[in-house]
Amino acid sequence: MTVNDTWLVAGLGNPGERYEATRHNIGQMVTDELARRIGASFKRHTKANARTAEGRIAPGAPKLVLAKPNTYMNTSGGPIAQLRAYYDLPVERIIVIHDELDIDFDTIKLKQGGGHGGHNGLRDTAKALGTPDYLRVRVGIGRPPGRQDPADFVLGTFSKQERETLPMLISEAADAVELIVRDGLTAAQNTVHARA
User: Fold this and answer.
1) Can you tell me the distance from the alpha carbon of 96 to that of 130, in angstroms, rounded to the nearest whole number?
2) What is the residue-wise DSSP string for the chain?
3) Which residue, 15, 4, 73, is CA-closest to 42?
4) How far apart are alpha carbons 30 and 114 in whole angstroms?
5) Which end of the chain is more exposed for a tag (fewer CB within 10 A), N or C?
6) Which long-range contacts (CB under 8 A, 24 or more apart) does 54-63 make?
7) Using 50, 70 and 90 to split pLDDT, how confident is the model at 195?
8) How far apart are CA 62 and CA 84, in angstroms?
9) Considering 24, 45, 98, 119, which one is annotated as catalytic?
10) Distance between CA atoms of residues 120 and 124, nearest Å
11) What is the mean pLDDT of residues 116-141?
12) What is the pLDDT of residues 30-66, one digit of tens each?
């Protein structure tokens, strides 16, 4: 019997071109970067309402199943739970990458479990998995300026200034996922949080 060394890495976002470049979709931007690194492309999964790409960061490294739910953000949990069941994974092997209003732009925080902070994608994922104890790569997008509605802010595109550093932010979030898989959460936190 082979050991299951698979990790499910889900990037949250909304489907379709209209949302591709929005703040709410930064989780999917990170999964795109990870797919580029492992030389895999996203395909429709036969048993889950998601597109997935599979591969290893390096020979002998754990297998990554990168996932982008085909559903809208508020119903992200179903496809993630379907993939968890298909690959028979413990919740500790699930990493969700998402945008985070309560963290400054250009900052990444890692944690396991906790509340959803009003993030409907996280709320639905916890509900579908039956636990909030999955791992999270929280990519800071900052608070909306002035009195702008947070809902409008997250569905807006990055500012010109933000776009200049966005590739580096996406790359560092992808690095964070690799660190978690390779070294575990605590070691990854020590490395990533020291940069903040």
Assistant:
1) 15
2) -----EEEEEE----SGGGTTBGGGHHHHHHHHHHHHHT---EE-SSSSEEEEEEESSTTSPEEEEEEESS-GGG-HHHHHHHHHHHT--GGGEEEEEEETTS-TT-EEEEES---TT-HHHHHHHHHHT-S-SEEEEEE--PPSTT--HHHHHTSBPPHHHHHHHHHHHHHHHHHHHHHHHH-HHHHHHHHHHH-
3) 15
4) 22
5) N
6) 57/178, 57/181, 57/182, 61/181, 61/182, 62/5, 62/6, 62/7, 62/181, 62/182, 63/5, 63/6, 63/7
7) confident
8) 16
9) 24
10) 6
11) 97
12) 999 999 999 999 999 999 999 999 999 889 899 999 9
Backbone phi, then psi, for 157, in 5-degree steps? -85, 165
Please state, in angstroms and rounded to a whole number, the distance separating the CA atoms of residues 51 and 39: 15
Residue 1 has pLDDT above 60, yes or no: no
CB 15, CB 49: distance < 8 Å: no
Task: Specify whether 24 is catalytic.
Answer: yes
In the chain, the percentage of residues whose pLDDT exceeds 90 is: 92
